[in-house]
Sequence to fold (313 residues):
Amino acid sequence: MAQLSRLIPSARGLLVFEAAARTGSFTAAAAEFNVSQPSISRSVAELEAAVGARLFERRARGLALTADGSDLFAVVGEAVGRIADAVQAIRQRQNATKPVVTLSMSSSFVAHWLLPRLGEFHAAFPEIDIRFDLIPGVLRGIPDNVDLATRIIEDDDPRYHRWFFAPEIIFPVCSPAYLKARGRLDHAGDGSGHVFLWLTDYAMPKWAREWGNVARRSSSKGVWHEFTDYSVILQAALNGEGIAVGWVSVVSSALLKGTLIPASDLVIRTGQHHSLIAPRSRPLNPMVEGVALWLRAQIAGELAALDEALRPR
Fold:
């Protein structure tokens, strides 16, 4: 921040620039800041002078960003949005009657594993409320306002407190009714007679060798449906619509209940682990650690019960 203060005269100029770029109008930006249009124009001119480049082209129909302006807006716009989200989250926590813990997790994990345990969770932590930041597909970055997340990270990642949650174990799953109607999946076959429910973000070549011939979609005689939301895929599998890729960290409860079962003997252990992580950028809240340990204990019991079923054949 000290370096930024030497580059531009005032951080307010960046906020004014963001508003003008977002609305495409000095007048609209002036309304947001409750100042005159000339005041906005002066702030932008000062910023342009500090940057050493024109940021806007003034046109009859409004403003247009220059190439330099577009580059700056791409960064400033994202930063302003993230700051606003963080401030809103802080306000929500301060205004809440109880402390709020924000969890960043896949929508599938919450829908199929955590929601059935919410009663037990609230019994264990009656003093806190939970806010879910849900992700429908592959888990990637972590928003700044998150207290605890489930991710696969490097063992030596210094940015996070870490609690191992579950190994990444993958296998095809389906409903008992589907298996009875269509039979077990033959990985040496061509998939004929089967329906595959696939997550668009995950390419089959990642596990092509383990999946065998059935993974070759170019020659497959099965039916393939792709989704961007893994939660929907699992619901379709529960409904008997096809075979899904099952991550044990999500489907363990369904396996124990018998609502999902392995569609073949294939079990892939990737050697990676899903972890519960909390950012080291702020002090670790004891409540967050308590939630992490509770979640880890819950799945540990399920994994122990599934140990025999998950051994590779």
